[in-house]
Amino acid sequence: xxxxxxxxxxxxxxxxxxxxxxxxxxxxxxxxxxxxxxxxxxxxxxxxxxxxxxxxxxxxxxxxxxxxxxxxxxxxxxxxxxxxxxxxxxxxxxxxxxxxxxxxxxxxxxxxxxxxxxxxxxxxxxxxxxxxxxxxxxxxxxxxxxxxxxxxxxxxxxxxxxxxxxxxxxxxxxxxxxxxxxxxxxxxxxxxxxxxxxxxxxx
Length: 203
Prior knowledge:
Layout: H1 2-24, E1 29-39, E2 43-53, H2 55-65, H3 75-86, E3 96-100, E4 103-105, E5 111-118, E6 121-133, E7 139-145, E8 152-156, E9 162-165, E10 170-178, E11 192-200
Parallel strand pairs: 1-8, 1-9
Antiparallel strand pairs: 1-2, 2-6, 3-4, 3-7, 5-6, 7-11, 10-11
């Protein structure tokens, strides 16, 4: 009998520990992100972001803010979405993590926010200013987007997840990679980063 009780307790403890990450939380919102890295005459100017949300969340937002039910957002409705459904993300850095030469850059604000409904899906677009002057040697810029609470799951778009704009004056290269060193949600999910290197063109 003692053996059976001990076995039952061991199994229960195992199940509790295995199920903790699953029971605490799981994604309720899903979106695909795509990033356009913008350069100006001096170097990096910032990143234009696009998020395409899942149909369920999109329908919730449309139900709340498409007040005239015409399947598109009017300027007045976009202003309300920004105030009530988007601006609070400032408390979470807009789910955007940036490092410049290995040092964190805190995203305190964004600009040029817009919202749209296309094919039953809601799309957010906004610009993250981040000025990094180019030099004759390479500089490294890393950006990733994720929700460390894992309430929201973020995936890179399959079609053109990253693009560059205005980069003609610079030598540039980038790669997309998982950052296993900064895994979150009990170490089960890794941020996916865009690692960009750029410098002034020689000659």
